[in-house]
Structure formats: C-alpha cells, structure tokens
Write a structure and sequence with these properties.
single chain; 97 residues; alpha+beta; Nuclear Transport Factor 2, Chain: A; six-stranded mixed sheet; 2 helices; 6 strands; globular
Amino acid sequence: MDAVKMFFAEDAKTSDYNGITTSGKSQMVEKMEGFTGAISRVNGITLHRSITEDFSSASEFTFDFDMKDGSKIYWHEIIRRIWNLDGEVIHEEYFNA
C-alpha cells in the first residue's frame, strides 16, 4: 500500500490477467485497500527475482494468503512496471506465471 502511495504517478494505469483495470493512483489505492482488508492471514510473500532496464522493471512473486471469507489465495505472478522520468510508475501489468 505504501509503495503505491509513494511510487505511483497520479495518472498511473494498471491491468491484470483477470481483465481488471484501474485508472489513476486513487483507484489503485482503493483497490489495494479493499484487497488487503479482506486478508485474514499472510502465509508468505516471496520475491523470486526482479529485473530492471531503462524505464521498466519486472518482478516475479508468489503470494499465499488466507482470506476472511475462508478462501485461500496462492498466486505466482510477474508484475511489470513502466516508470516515468520522475521515478513514478505510470503503468503496471500483472501476468499469471
């Protein structure tokens, strides 16, 4: 959450492999607050690797959560980011790994 607030440009856009998109930092913060508020337990977050080149970066993560509704989330995903000259994310895209 803090990383989104600190590093996202006001007009940043995101998209994921489920077809969910956001337009603007405020929408992304709202989405993240809703998601993190639904987590009852974090079993693990693993950063496998990260790469950077020019104004882009990509990170491979595994996320393992127990949710308040009793469901479980286990995601293995790659997150790609495009950065502007001010060091802010202007586009972030999630890929199912």
